[in-house]
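Take a look at the protein record below with the fold in mind.
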Amino acid sequence: MTTAPTARTAPTAPATLRERAAQLDADDPLAPLRARFLLPPDVVHLDGNSLGPLPAAVPAALDDVVRRQWATGLIGSWNANGWWQAPLRVGDAIGALIGAAPGQTVAGDSTSVQLFTALDAAAALRPDRPLLVTDPGHFPTDRYLADAVARRRDLEVRRVPPADLPRFLAAEGHRAAVVSYSPVDFRTGELYDMRALTRAAHAAGALALWDLCHAAGALPLDVDALGVDLAVGCGYKFLSGGPGAPAFLYVARRHHAVLETPLPGWTGHADPFGLAQDYTPAPGIARARIGTPPILSLLALEAALTAFDGVDLAEVRAKSLSLTGFFLDCADALLTPLGFTSVTPADPARRGSQVTLRHPHARGLAVALAEHGVIADMRAPDLLRFGVNALFTSHRDLLTAALRLRDLTREEAYDVTPPSVGPVT
């Protein structure tokens, strides 16, 4: 398969771009996977890094859960249909996508709950260290929860950009309990070096906690091989588990025996149906379970994950780079003359699975694009985000998006001050 070049090519004419898109799509070994999604006709969906489209396997799975398992099996389905084990079973399915051996990942609860659990549990594993180190550019929830855990644990939050983290840890790492970052900047799509930053945290004696929301399912992660201590991620972006899909929590096996979670719910008890007066944590990752699992959404996520069956994430990554590299070339040729600038690194090694363009009328253009069949999103005040999911996105999709954005901008066919374009996740 053709992958993105190591350097940006010169701007090309639209006809040449069409020829390139057609050839790249013709050579794409992952092209048949598009049929695993129920995509609306005549819509280019470039917002799968916020909400993935509906996988084809989900409707039938949910119909079975509702009409047979729930309607007929009733409470017996907790055992007969494997509801009780679903958080661990789905966790292992996600674990396979992030490079985690079985028994280290659990699914259920929201991303915020999983992140709070991970941050607090990590801090508890380093009780003699007063610093919680995180990214000043982190997604807001990550920043809010870091502050909440710091108040609860009497810690100091230090906000250090990823590029400055090794230098900071060399100087003050002996005071750091946990280092909490994301491998992908949710605004710009910049990819950070998980291996290097994890090693820097460990060299300082701190734990490395990663938010994988914008990475899981988009690129190989290998959390076990990298020595990651804890990780969290959502189920509704690249995993396409549906709006508000359950999140996951990974904890490396070496920490299980002493892991203390801040929310000791009954399903995480060693004997959940014994109804003991006092809490005794279950062995292994099961102790990170909290409350009754959301079965409908959890089984929808499980069905969605079958879209990855037989898929090599190295090929997903290669196609993602081809897609984003091609879109950067489209932007150079069609959009730079109209005042757009890219804030996504041109270097493939530093690029996640999205391209972000800066324009002063980003919000209005995002609304206009949606009205013309291209679903992207924006980040205030002036960033247009185009996410690609290699399981269903084509090079033709990206060329279509660039051409429509060019035409809307050139013709000023958009509202400069439109209402909000929707949720920011």
